[in-house]
Design brief:
The complex is a heterodimer of chains A (204) and B (135). Chain A is an alpha+beta fold and 204 residues long. Chain A has 9 helices and 8 strands. The radius of gyration of chain A is 19 Å and the shape is globular. Classes of the chains: A alpha+beta (204), B alpha+beta (135).
């Protein structure tokens, strides 16, 4: 989804009348093609720009004390992404942002974006809404991580993230859910067997 | 104040909020769906409240307020981000250490019971960790 369609989506903050304005705002963004496995941000760098995924899929991860990559966020087309702390407080990032597929990314520098925000009320309202959506996403993520068994976590992913689950390897899903990869693959097999037995029962 | 949900008959804390901070039940407030959460005062509190419709109206008419809100939302986002990160740690010790580093200011005002459910571990286990940590 290109950024202009995204801004006009739902007619909530920008409407068709604002097309000219939206196009003007969009002209401040730069488009960038990146290959699978390429990094947009490394640990230690200050995240001084925001990214919008026009096409593709990214992941945000950090490396824990045991040297293991832990995924914290999967971001697909039509969504914004940045390393929260580094971007907001302008401190070195603890996280990496990596392309999981060949992707097209729009980028904007934080200072340019802040300048636009200060001068455009509609953009500010649009941003408030995007941030609320991000927060709701993280809040849900936190309850899923806190409550449930590995099985329940996987079920949650199937129900709520079915749009990206097939695009992500089991290894990446496992660290996102905070379970071991071997354990996740057991869960997935059990789940599939259950689904199959349900369908066979229906067939009988 | 604390935000909690009830899961399998057990209260699970999801957020602690102290003076100078904003609070809502995020998903319910944003999507206007019935809340799965409770918000409860842990100490005697003085709370200011505003209706979502009033708040939206003010937001629409005041750019500076919108900029202020954006800043606050980033703070909340970082907070949740930390929470998710700590929950993915596999051991309870690590989770507790993380809390000490990030939440020093409220930690002393919370009972072990509340901290335990925030970390997703048993209270007895937490008290073992804490005594181990102090030594």
């Amino acid at each position: 989804m290109n950024i202009i369609e995204k801004a006009l989506q739902g007619n909530r903050f920008f409407t068709k009348k604002d097309l000219f304005l939206v196009e003007k705002l969009a002209s401040f963004l730069f488009s960038k093609k990146i290959k699978k496995k390429e990094l947009l941000l490394k640990e230690g760098e200050v995240n001084d720009r925001m990214f919008y995924v026009q096409k593709g899929l990214l992941r945000v991860y950090f490396i824990n004390d045991d040297g293991k990559e832990i995924n914290t966020w999967f971001v697909k087309e039509g969504e914004f992404v940045y390393a929260c702390h580094s971007f907001h407080y302008q401190i070195p990032s603890e996280e990496y942002i990596e392309a999981m597929e060949d992707s097209i990314i729009m980028t904007i520098k934080k200072e340019t974006w802040l300048m636009l925000l200060r001068n455009n009320h509609k953009l500010a309202l649009f941003t408030v809404n995007e941030l609320m959506a991000n927060i709701a996403e993280f809040a849900t993520q936190a309850s899923v991580l806190r409550l449930m068994t590995g099985e329940k976590k996987y079920e949650y992913l199937i129900t709520h993230k079915s749009d990206i689950i097939d695009r992500i390897s089991q290894k990446h899903l496992a660290s996102y859910l905070g379970v071991e990869t071997t354990y996740l693959s057991k869960i997935i097999n059990n789940y599939k067997n259950n689904e199959e037995s349900k369908t066979t029962k229906k067939a009988i | 104040m604390r935000v909690y949900i009830i899961h399998e008959g057990k209260e699970i804390n999801t957020w602690f909020v102290k003076e100078g901070e904003f609070i809502n039940s995020v998903t319910s407030f944003y999507y206007e769906t019935p809340s799965e959460e409770y918000i409860e005062a842990i100490e005697n509190c003085e709370v200011l409240e505003i209706k979502k419709s009033t708040y939206n109206m003010l937001l629409k008419n005041n750019l500076k307020l919108a900029l202020f809100v954006i800043d606050q939302l980033y703070v909340n986002l970082c907070e949740y981000h930390d929470q998710c990160q700590s929950l993915r740690f596999l051991t309870a010790e690590k989770k507790y250490e993380f809390l000490i580093t990030k939440k020093q200011d409220v930690l002393n005002r919370l009972s072990q019971k509340h901290i335990a459910s925030f970390l997703g571990i048993e209270t007895t286990y937490l008290s073992k960790i804490i005594s181990g940590y102090k030594e």
